[in-house]
Design brief:
2 copies of one chain form a homodimer. The first copy, chain A, is mainly alpha-helical. Chain A has a 3-stranded antiparallel beta sheet with strand order 1-3-2. In chain A, strand 2 and strand 3 form a beta hairpin. Chain A is globular, with a radius of gyration of 20 Å. At the A-B interface, helix 1, helix 5 and helix 6 of A face helix 1, helix 5 and helix 6 of B. The first copy, chain A, binds a DNA duplex through helix 3 and helix 4.
DNA sequence: ACCAGTTCGTTCGATTTCAAACAACCCCAG
DNA sequence: CTGGGGTTGTTTGAAATCGAACGAACTGGT
């Protein structure tokens, strides 16, 4: 079922269906984001902090170099430096010398960090359910996954001429 | 087609399909957001600025009170105060005394603001296309709209006990 | 008129964010 | 071994963000 409002990109504006989808997307992502942030903040973690911990907890030896983290999480490097210091002060994470390259140090998850992830992850999953999946049918879950995957794929392939910065010292 | 990985919420974790959808959602929204921000920033506007201007441009007489803006856009009030000053300096908006209530002043879009919206809106639409709709089939556009609408509906109905704050002086 | 109680928006303070410049280091050709 | 070119992560400085406290102004009852 394709209605007239779906078919062509009319001139310079969005079709009705696109308009509706866009508005829902904007406020939806905003509301979902707010909900997830709230749950994490109660544990003293920013959403990015959780990303860092989760990424490390899945890495081999629970360690990654800072640049890898930045690239995977698509965060600017100075931001990671700052945030990592904060996590260090909480004892969730620590640095370790890289034996082969004195420039870079490994970012490793401490045992306390592992505990924190074990504690927070289920809460976070519950938040994700409450914010997203509880309101969707299984079919819609699949659709959402394919849609966002297509978007990522489309953007990544369409702009690799602008590289994958997240670097700042790159003139 | 429903595979075993789709059906039940297994215990305390996400199904494979949910896992995939969630990851795609997180990085997808992040990437899309970055893309849109970039286009607006080239005009000296933050995404919230654009929201403010767009909201005002659709309001009767192109004016709203600050509290209304805060509520509609779901932004904290001090944030709006600050951002609005910035927009005032650019000449895109201005305040006007409310004749019946000396506390509050109207936020109105100037002619320059109208021009700015007219200039930026098409660019923004193009960004939205480039970031989102260009990568989706018409069917997927409809799916996305319904999915996000369901999410908003679900969340709003599920937590209206926590009111619609965005206020800060509320003890 | 007058005094609580409420609502409106601003100000203050501490934190967060990030682009640009920077220092340290690796690699490799000459 | 030495020096250019590319990498890695940090420092810096300015701007943004937002919770909490604040003052000013409307409201309704007495």
């Amino acid at each position: 079922m394709i209605s007239m409002s779906d078919v062509p990109p009319p001139g310079q504006w969005l079709s009705d269906a696109e308009q509706q989808a866009w508005r829902a997307y904007v406020t939806g992502t905003s509301v979902v984001g707010r909900l997830l942030d709230r749950a994490l903040k109660a544990r003293g973690l920013s959403p990015e902090d959780y990303g860092i911990l989760a990424m490390l907890s899945e890495a081999p030896d629970r360690q990654l170099r800072l640049g890898e983290l930045a690239a995977q999480l698509r965060l600017p490097k100075p931001f990671l430096t700052y945030r990592f210091q904060r996590l260090e002060q909480s004892g969730l994470v620590e640095r370790r010398q890289c034996p082969t390259d004195a420039r870079s140090a490994f970012c490793v998850l401490t045992d306390a960090g592992v505990e924190m992830v074990a504690l927070v992850a289920p809460e976070h999953v519950a938040s994700v359910r409450g914010a997203l999946f509880d309101h969707l049918s299984p079919a819609q879950v699949g659709q959402l996954g394919r849609i966002m995957a297509a978007v990522i794929e489309g953007i990544d392939s369409g702009e690799n001429e602008c590289e994958s910065d997240c670097e700042t010292g790159a003139p």
